Amino acid sequence: xxDLTPDRDERVANLKGLGCSRKRVEDARFTQGKGNYIDDxxxxxxxxxxxxxxxxxxxxxxxxxxxxxMALDGVIAVLTAKDLEPLSLHxxxxxxxxKQMVLADGKVLFQGQEVAFxxxxxxxxxxxxxxxxxxxxxxxxxxxxxxEALKSEVVLREDLDGQTxxxxxxxxxxxxIFTWEVGDEAGTNAVIDDADVVAEETMYYHRTHxxxxxxxxxxxxxDKVNGKLTxxxxxxxxxVVRTVASLLSGIEEHNIRVVSPDIGGGFGxxxxxxxxxxxxxxxxxxTGVPVKWVEDRMENLMTTAFARDYWMKGRISATREGKITxxxxxxxxxxxxxxxxxxxxxxxxxxxxxxTGSYDIPIAxxxxxxxxxxxxxxxxxxxxxxxxxxAVYFIERMIEVLAIELNMDAAELRRINFIRKEQFPYQSAxxxxxxxxxxxxxxxxxxxxxxxxxxxxxxxxxxxxxxxGETRTLMGIGLSFFTEIVGAGPVxxxxxxxxxxxxxxxxxxxPTGSAIxxxxxxxxxxxxxxTFAQILASEIGIPAxxxxxxxxxxxxxxxxxxxxxxxxxxVAGAATAMAGRKIRAKAQMIAAYLLEVxxxxxxxxxxxxxxxxxxxxxxxxxxxxxAAYNQAIPGVEPGLEAVSYYDPPNMTYPxxxxxxxxxxxxxxxVTDIRRFYALDDCGTRxxxxxxxxxxxxxxxxxxxxxxxxxxAYDDMGNVKTxxxxxxxxxxxxxxxxxxxxxxxxxxxxxxxxxKGVGESxxxxxxxxxxxxxxxxxxxxxxxxxxxxxxxxxxxxTANGLGLHD
Length: 805
Ligand code: CDP
Known about the structure:
Aldehyde Oxidoreductase, domain 4; single chain; Aldehyde Oxidoreductase, domain 3; alpha+beta
């Protein structure tokens, strides 16, 4: 008979499984400066690369003279497009089916474009040599406005001139990339034309940048003796990089090892393939020694992976009582010089067709036109799942504008139109099946928590006081209710360059009852090493503290599509649970053998299998693991390992209700966020503390985007915000106190009911901050003003409304 101490509750606590605010295991090394980032890696004989970049946004490259640079002591090579051409590497495919120059081939198309790659003994010599490369340019007319680009005779992409078919169908103009349409346009127009009330608005979601703390970089090491290329880099999808590197270089995939070490934030910036990676690989192959390239902050902001840059035109119709009847959205999408957006192949504008939001809208249409301009390529999902941020901003602004048109409270308008709990799974007019939700409960909880009625009363009093001249401060109440769509997958409709978007987990239980699990994802700060061990702890009954989580090395991890779009928990988290269940199934057979009963007579209980009805007869997972390796069990092969490749049946649809209370000084445009309340529902919560951290981070990035952050260009295509002096990155000084809250509506198809959460706060936060600004001016006639709401723009808004007279 076994000892029944510790009791069940103690055993559960000991696991630190689902629902436990387990402290982040990775922080021990991060807080002690022991992280291992790309620039910490040094290999013997390593050389350093640096780029010569174009000062012009559009120019013909007449000549490149590398003699002076080559003559500098310590310079090993200077690569230009001519050197890459024999290898067919002067252009590379983008993730969006376009192609992109690796090094300037005849002309440059955006400021900061890569023109030549200098390889030198150290970083300083490389930088000096960059200045010695002489490039003769002939300036060409610059197009930074997508509407102008679509009218202009200037051909930006001469390589595509005359090509009327693009990767996503017909091209209407030489600067046009694609048209993507979803929904019923004729039907939608008919409903809107016939409606009681119609609201129209055009809004610009400005260009911005994920700007992770650590910029992008890589270290390529070609070992000519064993023919193996090792590539260390800031990759959010290491396996995809391996496959693409193999296809591009012709090196067999088993001879390429891609390693993502610690990554200092990604937010979409580290999904794409950049010229720096290709040039480092070529330089290492040519020189036979490792070559490192790490971009600086300005290069990061100016050239890698912008986000947003969507012009969105909407029409929404409703009955006089406020029931929405139809939604029409057209987007002009500025993709810059090359279409390098990172979206699943079949979705050239990502999941923008989630723009019906959290509302039961019977008919809708979305049309998107992609356009080339003289701006950097990219188009990544900056802390969002493939353009969901744009979609949610669009619908949450349209709701506010409709509320103005209806002269109705915007909170009430939302309530009237929410998809009701009993409608899930809900089929949206633009093609998505929302898995689960309880929007009304979340909304009521949020409004009660902030005393919404009290706030509106206070706001009305403030407006009266302002009119009487007793105050110069207005008060805005920002509302937003968002539905995210995360967890791409399903393979049947989501792939990147033909690679299906499943994910994976492989588990090995060691004989003494500890374990290692490897995943196809890669954490960039999200705490996977902490939380995935918690999923496993609950599934297999081994304490999270006894489980190592490893990601990011393609030689050891199972194939997976990586971490972005909050897909890790919905896809790799599901794979982890499923692999754990395979372990448990084998453990059950072993336990039954050891306990001399039939398989069906034992059941899993926290950390052991017990004989049904006889809790004192059990085998712990530790005992079972030992037996798996050391005891001959008839019909069962030794060892305790499992792997799962998980193709999700659907995405998950987390949601949330946010309220922001903001005071605005009308005379200075200075804002003060008095209160920010965020209620999130991400289904089953794995680690509440990690979730809260994700929400704080996502809200802070939302604050940045809504209130000041942008990549702005002048008419000549010069980047005006290429340093952190001009590009707003909030610090503790600007960040308000966040109040977090939650409801729990599990995903019905995810093995543990979890939905993603990492990006929700960003998606819901941006419209909430923006709506607060706009709401403050609603009593004075404002319908809409574009972000970012920096002090100057807010002052201009107030001035335009005559509030400074
Ligand atoms: O893909 P990414 O890791 O960026 O996003 P995610 O899947 O939303 O997960 C972010 C972090 O929050 C991970 O450490 C998750 O395990 C954790 N999380 C959680 O604790 N509970 C959830 N329901 C969702 C995520």
